[in-house]
Write a structure and sequence with these properties.
295 residues, mainly alpha, two-stranded antiparallel ribbon, globular
C-alpha cells in the first residue's frame, strides 16, 4: 500500500512537471488548477467502480449523520434557544458543505505531505516555477467527495423551505463569504499540521489531531456551557477558531440578522486572515528547514 501511494505521488508530480514545463516562466494558477482538476477526473473515471463505491460510502455516512440528528429531534424540539429542527438542518448542511470542500481539494494532498518529504518527492515541487504551497495543496482533487457537497445543497434547500423566515439576498451573500472563511480556516489548520512533517517525519498523530479538533465545529456553540463547556467554547473560538467555521455562516442563513451576531462575524474575518497568514508563515519556515533527499 505504501509503495502504491509513493508511486501515485510520483506520477502526480511527474504529470505536474510536464504541464508546468510546457507553460511560461510564470504559469497561470487557474490554468494549473484546471489541469490538476482534469487529470484527477480522468484518473477517477479510469476506475469507475472504485469511484462509485467511494460516492456510495460518502453518501451513506452523511445519511447516517442526518438520521442520527433527526432521531434526536424526534425527542427534543430544539438545541438551545436558537436551533430548532430546520435551523439545525441548515447548520448540518453548512458543516457538510465546508467539510466536503476541504475533503475534495485539500485532504487528499496534505495527508500525503509527509510521504513527499520521506521519499524526497518534495524536491520536484520545489523545482517548479510555481508556489510550492499551491502545488502541494491542489495536486489532486477527490471528485467522489463532492457527492457530499451535492447532498448538502439538497439538504439546505429542504431546510430553507421550512424556515419561518426565509433568508434575504444579503444573508446569502454573507453565507457564501463565511463558508469560504470556514474552509480557509480548516485548510490553514491542516497545512500547519502537515508542515510539521518537516521536523517530525511522519505526522499521522498530528493528522488525527486535526480530526479530533474539527469535531468541535460540528455542533452549535450553545451546547458548550458550564464548568467544562465554557472553557472549551472560549478556547475553540478565540484560540483555535474551530467553532467559528460553521456557527457563523449557519447563523447568517438560518437566523434573522441581529446585532448580537456581528461581533462574532467580525472576529471570523480576523480569524481567517490570521489563520492564513500564520499557516503560510509556518509552511515557509518548514521549507526553510527542509533538507533535500539528495543532500
Amino acid at each position: 500500500m505504501a509503495h502504491d501511494v509513493v508511486q501515485a505521488v510520483a506520477h502526480d508530480f511527474g504529470s505536474a512537471a510536464g504541464g508546468l514545463e510546457s507553460m511560461s516562466e510564470h504559469p497561470s494558477y487557474l490554468r494549473v488548477f484546471l489541469t490538476f482538476a482534469r487529470n484527477s477526473l480522468v484518473r477517477d473515471m479510469t476506475f469507475r467502480t472504485n469511484f462509485l463505491v467511494d460516492v456510495v460510502a460518502s453518501l451513506t455516512w452523511v445519511s447516517m449523520q442526518l438520521a442520527f440528528y433527526l432521531l434526536i429531534f424526534a425527542f427534543a424540539p430544539s438545541i438551545g434557544s436558537d436551533w430548532g429542527k430546520y435551523e439545525f438542518l441548515v447548520f448540518l448542511a453548512t458543516t457538510l458543505l465546508a467539510n466536503s470542500l476541504v475533503g475534495a481539494f485539500f485532504m487528499p494532498n496534505l495527508s500525503e505531505f509527509s510521504e513527499l518529504i520521506r521519499t524526497g518527492h518534495l524536491d520536484f515541487a520545489l523545482l517548479k516555477p510555481i508556489d510550492t504551497q499551491f502545488l502541494v495543496s491542489f495536486q489532486r482533487i477527490e471528485w467522489s467527495t463532492l457527492a457530499n457537497f451535492v447532498f448538502a445543497l439538497c439538504l439546505l434547500a429542504f431546510a430553507l423551505v421550512h424556515l419561518e423566515n426565509p433568508p434575504q439576498a444579503i444573508q446569502w451573500v454573507l453565507f457564501i463569504v463565511y463558508v469560504g472563511c470556514g474552509v480557509a480556516m480548516l485548510y490553514s489548520l491542516m497545512i500547519a499540521l502537515s508542515s510539521a512533517s518537516v521536523w517530525m517525519g511522519r505526522n499521522q498523530n498530528l493528522y488525527d489531531f486535526w480530526f479530533y479538533i474539527t469535531n468541535f465545529s460540528r455542533y452549535p456553540m450553545e451546547i458548550y456551557e458550564g464548568p467544562i463547556g465554557t472553557p472549551l467554547r472560549r478556547a475553540f473560538t478565540f484560540v483555535v477558531p474551530i467553532l467559528v467555521v460553521v456557527n457563523v455562516p449557519a447563523r447568517m442563513l438560518a437566523q434573522p440578522l441581529s446585532a448580537q451576531n456581528w461581533p462574532l462575524a467580525g472576529f471570523a474575518i480576523l480569524a481567517t486572515a490570521g489563520s492564513l497568514l500564520g499557516s503560510r508563515w509556518m509552511f515557509v519556515r518548514a521549507l526553510a528547514s527542509y533538507r533535500s533527499a539528495s543532500s
